[in-house]
Batch of 2 targets.
Target 1
Amino acid sequence: MRFLLIEDNSELAEAVVDRLTLDGHVVDHAPTLAVAADFASVTSYDLILLDIMLPDGDGRSFLKRQRNHKDGTPVIVLTARSEVSDRVGMLDSGADDFMVKPIDFAELEARCRAVLRRRGGKSTNRITLGDLTFDSLSGTLHTPQGEAQLRPRELRLFEILVNAPGQIFSKGALVDRLFSYDEEVSENAIEVYIGRLRRHLVSSRAEIVTVRGLGYKLDAQ
Amino acid sequence: MSEPVAQGSLRRNLTVMLLLGAVGLALLVYFIVQSVAREIAQESQDNVLAASAISILDSARVVEGEITIDFPYASLSMLDTVTNERVFYAIRRDGRFLTGYEDLPLPTEPATAATQFASDTFLGEPIRIATARRGLSSDAGASTLEVSVAQTLSGMTQTLARISRISMFVGGGFFLLAALLAVLISRATIRPLDRLAASVARRGPKDLRPVAAPIPMEMVPLVRSLNNFMSRLQRSLSRSEEFIAEAAHRVRTPLAIVRTKAEITLRRVEKQENREAIRDMIRAIDESSRTAGQLLDHAMVTFRADHLLDEDVDLAALTQDTIESLRPVSELKEMEITAEIRGTPHLRGDAILLQNALRNVLDNAIKYTPAGSTLSVTLHETDDQAVVTVQDNGPGFPKDDIDGLRYRFARGGNAAGTIGSGLGLTIVEDVVTAHGGRLTLSNTEGSGACVTISLPS
Amino acid sequence: MRHHFIAILTMLLTACAATFSSAFEIEDHAIFGDDKSEQRLRILSTADIEFFAPMISSYLSATPEIQIDYTVASSTEVMRAIYDEGASFDLVISSAMDLQTKLANDGYALTHVPSSLPSLPDWAVWNDMVFAFTQEPAAVVISKADFAGHPVPSTRQELIAALRRDPERFYGRIGTYDVRNSGLGYLFATQDARTSETYWRLTEVMGALDAQLYCCSSDMIDDVESGKLAIAYNVLGSYAAGRGETDRLETVLLSDFTTVMLRTVLIPRTTDQPELATAFIDHMLDRTYGNGPTPLQNASPDISITDAALHRIRLGPGLLVFLDQFKSRSFLSEWESAILQ
């Protein structure tokens, strides 16, 4: 996905850009509202991450301007301020969702999905691989034997695998992305979800291959 | 917030004082009307008596040395024209009785005026006597002729009774009018005060603008101090709000940087022990940021609960919104949130606070129940209450000290390893109490914790 | 009605004098009703027994268990009995309105508020003490024979004109009260004089024609009937009408004005039966003004006389004026100089 991050703290912005890039996203960073407006006018983003307190103004005014220009790009507001007083106001001024810093990237991903799902989704969310068609927003997977509805963790796991077919993912990396940090889970917990996905893929030519000692990869054949 | 101590009422005091004044004035009017009317009645009776006496006196003549008194019929009949009166008279010459009623009392005081009046009793009845004198000269020399005419007082008594009645009506009417005016005046006098109170009460908790509407002179000092007080409050409130926002910003931004960098680092680290260390780090960061967040939230809640908004809150919509905003978080743990909303309960209060409370309850439930659990949220109405319950199928609250959970920084003993400050339920309790409701924590049969919030609707 | 009561008529002055052991002179005495009854109502009256008996019998027909003792005396004797001698009676009835008024005014009468009677006129009650129960006009009685072929005078002016026109015919044949001896005559004369100066002209004309002076109405009527008198002035109309239809007399109520005397009743202070007295007064007033007609004959004037001409003597202190010795002295001297020529 293509993100626009509007954040004045350069250190945080840099970290966020790095972090999102790790998951395969493309991120443009705008330190001010003026720069953000420039970016938004030339590039079409899937999602805008917007800080409220910016050197050249309030994030809310940017939001309003966007909405006035009929720019429908979803916006998730990031704030470091107290959420009690901000939350309702932000949603009222047209934000799609709201997160308090520090950002839990798993939660951010979930919220992005929820926002995009609410917006009705785009065809770009649909991935075709061999005899498989996968819609990452609705979580539906078409296989020769029919259509399956993936549960949240199956969906996220499959999304990771399907976005990089053939790439080997270690159990540890998968655990990091599937479970939140406050859950005590062993790396073997990932096997349960691999098992479930394999059952969905029985009729397909694609399969999840175990690479001994390294991890898993999706083989499309 | 404590109710002001009310002692007396300006309007009542004013009304009572005006009414007392009205009573006094009415009594005064009553007595004045009565005494003036009495005097006039007495005077008119005296005038008739005097006219009678003088007409007798005028008819006296000396003819050939003999005195003749050919007094007109009317001299006595005039005394009986309106009411039946008994009439007495006596004619004396130089104090010597000539004719009439010999025993009729003589005037007690020495003659000063042309006609003298006296009240007395004769033949067992109270009477009024008029006595007139005239010099009479004959061949035998000068003498004084004295005529006394008296009448009973039945007409006077009737007149006085009527006067009494009329003055009572006048006094009573005056009192009623004055009482009406008293009520109207006191109401009109208090009205600016009522208007000021209403205009201040109508304001939202953040509306601390000075009172600008015109007010009577006497209220200027009060309104001036009120305005002063409000501007001081405004300054201090905005300072504390700014402080809270600034504190949050200062704390959270570095935490966000550290956390993000930790996540990135985790991706790149292969060694198991290092990975564990970084995960611990992230958990610690999460805990401290959550604690900071709840502390700030708590400060905000305390501030807002002190100046509780009084707006219409659609509890059904609010509950639905809150659930939706937390659904992405619950999905991360493969948790299901079911909502069962019956009715459309509305109540008066602060929607932001209520949403925050509900959010804290749900947030707690998501944090403290294992992955794959189900949260069921129900909302229903009773006669005078709206009841929200949040039920999970997790391990439940610790059995020994459920109610201790409400206090600051308490945390369930079985929540070890889960990030959280334990301030969540305290925030919930504060919000619910501020709205006059009740927070109940309980464990359901089998397993699962149940949080019940009852709010007066 | 007469069978309802036992009427005992006695004409014995001596017996009466013994009964009351009083000094005033009585003319007649009668006892009606149950003469054994302890409840005895004593009436002192100037009215003839015959005149008042119907009222008594109408009362006794409802309450036969009481005894009514009826004494007749002249108005001056009635005054003397009550005012000077303090004689004990339960009711005093008199045609002398002035004397009745004086009794009441001077405290010799008790007050009584008559039981509610809406038709009771104001003029019939004075001070809740004196109650009028008849209206009796002063009339002119003429001999029809003497006026045959002449118009009957209807006003005092016409009467004066008739007398002047034909002095020979009327000389010595005019009768009127001797106001020095008759209380009623004095009352009529003083009221006439008060009402109109014509009275004095008439009196002078009568004096010039050698008017005969009488003590009583009945004597005058007798003399007119016998032809001795041609005209009787100020005769009590009720007495004249009492003679019934006769072709010798004609009773004329003068239309310029006709003085009307009210016969009155009061309760003297000396009563020992005040309840009986008030009950009897209520009965009289009720029969007179309420559920009439009054049992008394000729107790109210002919209705053909217009109200304007009807000069009803008003009860009240005015009546005391002519009782004053100075006033009466001057009135009588004037009267004498007019009538005695």
Note: Residues 2-134+262-300 of chain C form a domain with the D-Maltodextrin-Binding Protein; domain 2 fold (CATH 3.40.190.10).
Target 2
Amino acid sequence: MREKTFLESFSRHRLGVIGCVGVALILLAGVVGPFFVPFQKGYGEAMPLAGPSAENFLGTDALGLDLFSEIIWGARTSILISASAVLVAMFIGIPLGLVSGYSRGKIGALIDSAIEITMTIPTLPLMILISALVGPSVRTVAVVIGVFAWPTLARIVRNSTLKVSQMQYIEAAKVLGISKGSIMFKHILLNIAGPVLVDITLIMATAVLTESSLSYLGLGDPNVWSWGGILQTAFKAGHHFRAWWLVIFPAASIMLYVIFFNLLGIGINETLNPKSRK
Amino acid sequence: MNMDSMLQVRNLKKYFPIKGSLFGAGPSYVHALENVDLDLYKGETLGVVGESGSGKSTLGRTIIQLEQPTAGKVLFEGKDVSALKGEELKRFRTNIQMVFQDPYASLNPRLSVGYAIAEPMIAHKRFASKAETKEATEELMKKVGLQPSMASQYPHNFSGGQRQRIGIARALSLNPKVLICDEAVSALDVSVQSQILNLFNALKRELGLTYIFIAHDLSVVRYISDRILVLYLGTVMEIAPKSRLFEKHYHPYTESLISASPEPSTAKRKGRIILSGEIPSPINPPKGCKFHTRCFKCMERCKVEEPGLREIETGHFVRCHLYDEKGRN
Amino acid sequence: MSRYITLRLAKGILTFFIAVTITFLIVRLMPGDPTTALISDSLSPEDALVLKESFGLDKPLYQQYFLFIRNLLKGDLGYSFFYKDSVASIIGNKLWWTLLLMGSSLFVTLLIGIPLGVISAKHQGKLLDQAINVAVVIGVSIFVPLLAFLLLYSFSFRLMWTPIGGAYSPGIDSSQMFGSVVSHMILPCATLVITYLASTVLYMRNSMLDVLKEDYVRTAKAKGVNDRKVTWSHALRNALIPTVTVTGLMIGKMVAGAVLTETVFSWPGVGTMIYDAVQKQDFPLLQGAFLVLAASVVVMTLITDLVVAWLDPRIKL
């Protein structure tokens, strides 16, 4: 009997498939969408603060700009920032997690404490301080989010590494004189790709929540559209009670982005470890 | 003996600390190896037998430097290798290699078997070019009875026996002089076992290898070994050339092992000796002779005084008070 | 003091010390002149000079660091450009409101979440499992300002059951104060409880399921101890240990939720202050806010550690 492939098992996970389709749609909207929808700037020709209509089917903002276009461009910003944050988190979290899980001893203990301490520190106020000091930009926000997202990734890499390094093939590699670097970054990393992938989808989700929170607090890049930024503008001007669409559509975009990535992560996780259903 | 001893183990001791419990009585240790001495001669196959918990795997792992000895030495070609580090350790690795017990766990599921065999050669820079490495990989695969065309496949496509052949090819990739086989066939079906054992014998002849063959199965050890070492609770009980050991064994433990092993060829089976009780815990090994708690010839003296390892006949060593007189001859 | 408390205390102090060091380095190693970050342009040149000296910005980095620590130990967090007041006294007035909000939310979350977790562990079933899983996904996906806004819009604007914002109605006397604060706190508190409840229920349920499988619970049942009693006394205490531990880890995240919630409800705490400080580019205030929140989290984590120690018979206090 042939073993079921990952994709076959995954396709039976209903929530996972929903997440996967949702993520695909968001990626489509954010990557391809901006080529078809104009970037909104200056003053729009439409009526300001007009509700959804055939012309502007998500309504317009206080400057008469089309909310739908803003949301599409906002998707691009969210993807850009969360993906860059993931890269930063991987760059820090994976090596530290591997080293702490594989070489235990003093360095391992040191990294463990660093993980624990970074997880205790309330990161949002710190990110606010840094973004305010450096000045809000897409790059700042992405780096700051990534720099504080590494501990969860490092912890997952560490725990998976602890498990994998007990395997006989790791001992075999040691006996064969394979270098520590190759053992960690090839032998172990290849075998923990699953949990790493799951955590990456979760970081994609939380990164967008954090990015939106920073933008909502007025620390988003003023030169790009972001969902949190649209909310911030509406709240600051007090339009949020009059023009519900300025709150609901950007906020719904944020939550759908987060939910879809979370569902995708859950789907992958439960396909990889059928027993560990939480 | 006039043969060259290429590997010497002297007074080798390995204790594993156990984490103290919350109600902490002082630290305790698993006494895995107690003052093990052995010589390995060039070209021979030394079988190591013992029950699980006898320390036989630890012996192999300590010789190959997967474990640091608590005390004692491992000398390879006259050089102490038990404290090697870095480049020196890496160089030492090319001399002694290991074939692991579980062919399912000892191959990385995410690496192709060709890469698994080639990787050590790349790590040790055995060849200058990729083509040479590839050629050597194919050569090794042929040598262990695998088709070189399968190099790009992953371990899950192979049977247990085939995987063990891959493990052997990988161990041979560094051209080692000594191969330690740690229960290398015990996870395999009986029919496959004999194929792999024959492969070991063929490779030994072809490459002039020296083996340490660790197993709990006496019939396997009997088939392949030139000499046999009997280990009990980390202590060497008897060492003898195979032919002699099966004819005349001195230690009651060896006697019980041999009587318990199924032996279709010899009709002269005496009554089976069934040992009472379980092997004692290596955390609190018995005082005196380690075996006295289960020995059917136990004397008062055995409970207090540990016997020494004595050469009773040429090349035949026994650790038992029964032969103290003869030992003095 | 026992080893456990000493260790936890040392870890707490180390955590705060690291937070302090990060802050110090960020402000000084960022591109650009740290003076502009610490001293506003709107200050008079004389005031700016005084400030510059008080930060020791003309001295080498390590001396600045010692000065920074010394000032912190004296309770000096710097000077706010916007409020023209010391950061410590401004935050001192706001911190209690934030702690009140966070403390009550945490209390309510545990008060509802623990029994719900136990009950859901007793009634296992596919439907309930699914419901909890979905609730957890939604819980971790909540964008706090949206939830806060929806609550504010429905209950304060549409239904007019609750006050619109702030922490108490202006111009009331002290006898009415308590009721006023409670009515103002309902919605902000509800926002945080809704956000964090699902994970608490999940943790409680999972640890309860683990504990119910343990030998001593089965032994107690076999001995004929009443099923209710087994659940609520024998098992609960042990199941609480991991839940409280996780709650301790949640506090750091809860600060983020509290900051965002406060801004929507104009709650007069540190969160709303941070929002204003961002708009006013008041860096010393932002720095002070982070340090104080970090210290609060460290203290709250220590408290949960002590609760764990009290619950866990293996740890001697």
Note: The CA atoms of residues 95 and 176 of chain B lie 4 Å apart.
